Structures are given as structure tokens and as C-alpha cells.
Amino acid sequence: MNAANVRQERPSHPQWVESIYERLAEDDEGRVCKAISDNACRESPGNFVRMLIANTLSNLADRLASAKTTLPWLLMQLGAPAWMLSLLVPIRESGSMLPQLWIGASIRQRAVRKWIWVAGGISQGLCLLVMGWVAMALEGWGAGALIVALLVVFSVSRGACSVAFKDVQGKTIPKTRRGRLSGWISMISGLAALGVGVLVGGLQSDSSQEVFVMLLAAAALLWLLAAIVFSRMIEEPGATEGGADGWRAALDKLSLLRTDLPFRRFVFARALALGTGLAAPFYVVLARDSLGDAISLLGLFIAVEGLASLVSSPVWGKWADRSSKQVFATACAMASILSLMVTIWSWVPASDLAHQAFYLLAFFGLGIAHAGVRLGRKTYLVDMAQGNKRTDYVAVSNTVIGALLLVVGLVAGLVASVSTQAALILLALAGLSGAWMSLRWKDVSG
């Protein structure tokens, strides 16, 4: 019986798990087992649900302790120097990507890789707990410096989780069901974030410090619970060839950019699409310039972002299983067009009510587009390769993108110091180029 056939083995998980899997994965007419082993196929419903729970918890934790919203507002509340605010997003994003080339080389030495994710999750939870203590005990330069340092550790741990997750997902979840899984993760965590955002939006500004402490503590608890759930994943030992060659072997993997044309096209298009993530703070800056910086506005942005994932991610995920490159191209173009529209609107004289409605709708649209970009490129990358090659692809692409993110973030920051609108235009034009380039990717779905 080959891997594409329907399996009839007796399941090793409760019937309710099977029912959830059949409903969410739309796999009720016989088990789909594409690109995984027989044993992994038998365990796929249980692993699907465990991965859904663990990554929903971690996704929600990321929203509660976001480097784009929560942490900048916390540093301002603690009186940290303004220049520290500009470090948060680059450290959060590039810090989780740059070390992945070497992390990937280390992970290849381990036949069972779920424990890398578990260790990374525990580390992130502990970092957030210490940040919560900082918010209560320190202020000024010291508080800001310690939070930035903790964010470095947090981001490196996140990088380890990223490499391990894609590899474990590729070994345990069948092809054509991975996009659905990612879609449901984003939707459920988006629903929870929507509720939190509405709650925060109803609070008064004089309670903001306590709110930040509670958000960080809740995010820490979610990460620790996620680690416990992920430790229950049933993962077969995988290949370990090439895992003991150290830094030299890791650097050698960069040759993939020269020798592997489909992979090179993927990395270039992903680099051009960085604006879908970097644009969000500029939306917030323009909105705050027009409407002020009350914590209720932060709550509205958290709620809108959660609503965007809630309504869009299952659609993007299902579509990504059919054509992940189409999802990436469509979402990337959508984000770029929105940024151009926001730029134009920022020059239009309007009432506070009109500004609030527009910026919240634009942020909602950007959230939908960014969810599509993330789901499209994640599903494409996982479907693109098998075994250790998948780990290499993830590690190389994330390391390169992490380095480029620092450069693009620096350039966008310098441009934004002159004109926020000019920075948005720059990111939008790059995104449109990335959308066009992704249409040349080879088809790997299905």
C-alpha cells in the first residue's frame, strides 16, 4: 500500500479526536496519507489535534505580547528611551530567523525533533514571565534594556521552534492537510485575540501598566501550556545525515541559493514581501498621529487583527492546499495596494470618526493579507521538499530573510524618519514585485 492510498488501520486515539480531524481537515471519506509514512498516517488525527492546540496557544501568546503593539506601548509606559522602541520589531523578527542556519544544523543531529520545539516554548514562556516582573519592578533605561535583552533570547528560541515545527509537521501531517491546519490555528487564536482586544479597548488609560503585566503573564502561561501539549506529539525518528558537520556544513547550505532555482525564486519573492509585516507599525503611527495614543486604541487594533485572522485564515488555508503560490501572490498584492491606499488617505482631511473607521478597516485588511502571505509561503515551503532538505530550506530561507529584514527595516526606518508615507510606498512597491515574482514559482501543491 503506497503513501497516497486510504488507510483502514484501527486508530490509536479516541473517537472524538477522529471526529474533530475529519471535520477540520475535511478528511471524512478515507484517510489521506500523502507524503508521510504508514505509521504517521495512523497517528495523523491525534497529531493534527495536538498540533492545533499547541500552536493555537502559542499563536495567541504572540498576539498578546506582540513586538508591534504590546511591547512598544509597555516601554513607553515604563519611560524607556524612545530609540529602544525602534529595536523591537527588527529584533523580534530577525532574531528568530538569523540563527536558523546553525539551529538547523543542530536539529539535523536529532532523530526526534519535537523536543526542540518544547524547549523553545518553555524558554519563551520564561522570558515573558521575567518581562512581567520588569514591568512591575523597574522603569526607565534599565527596564527597557532588560526587556530588549529578553526579547533577543525570546526570538532565538522562537527560531528554534520555527525550524522544528515545520519539520515535525512535514513528518506527521499529510500533504494537502497542512494548510488547513495552519488556517484553523490562525482562526481560533484570532477569535481569542478579538475577545482580548475588545476587553482592553474598554479599559481606561490609568490602568495600562497593570494591563501590560496581565497580558505578559497570560502569554507566558500560554507558551508553557503549549510546550506541554506539543510534548505529546507522536513523532517517528527521522534522518540525521549531515547533522554533525557544524558551522561549515551550515554555511555550505547557502549554496542552495545558487544551485536550486525554485528555492531561489521562493526566497527572492519572500524577501520582496517583507512589507506586509513591516507596514503594520506605520499604519499604527499614522492612526496615532490622527487619533491619539489612548490604550483603548491599542485594544481596537488588537481586536481588529484578531478578527482578520478569524475570518480569513481558514479560507487562505484551504486555498493554500490547492495552490499555495496563488495565495501568496494574491495576499501580497492585496497588502501592497492597501498600503498605497493608506498613504493617500493620510493626506486627506477628515473627521476623527472617519479616520478611526478608515484606519481600523485598513488594519483589518492588512491582517487578512498578512495571514494569506504567511500561510501561502509556509505551506509552499513545507510542500516543496522532503526530509532533511525541508529543514535546510527552512533554515537557509529564514536566515537570509532575517538578514534582509534588518537591512529593509533600517532603510524603511530611515525613510520613515523623513516621511512615513514614503516608507509605505517603498514597501508597497516591493510587495507588488514579490507578488509578480511568486507567479513564476513551480506548482508543488496537490
Question: Any overview of this molecule?
Answer:
By secondary structure, the chain is mostly helical. The protein has a single domain, classed as MFS general substrate transporter like domains (Growth Hormone, Chain: A), CATH 1.20.1250. It has helices at about 15-25, 40-65, 70-80, 85-95, 100-105, 115-135, 140-170, 180-200, 210-230, 245-250, 255-260, 260-270, 275-290, 295-345, 350-385, 385-420, 420-440. Helix 8 (about 180-200) crosses helix 14, helix 12 runs antiparallel to helix 17 and helix 13 runs antiparallel to helix 17. Residues about 1-10 have low confidence and may be disordered.
Gist of the model:
This protein is mostly helical.
Number of separate structural domains = 1
Q: Helix share of residues?
A: over 70%
Strand content: under 5%
CATH topology: Growth Hormone, Chain: A
The first-level CATH class is given as Mainly Alpha
What is the succession of H and E elements? HHHHHHHHHHHHHHHHH
List the helices and strands and how they pair.
Blueprint: H1 15-25, H2 38-64, H3 70-78, H4 85-94, H5 100-107, H6 114-137, H7 140-172, H8 178-201, H9 208-230, H10 246-252, H11 256-259, H12 261-272, H13 275-291, H14 295-345, H15 352-384, H16 387-418, H17 420-438
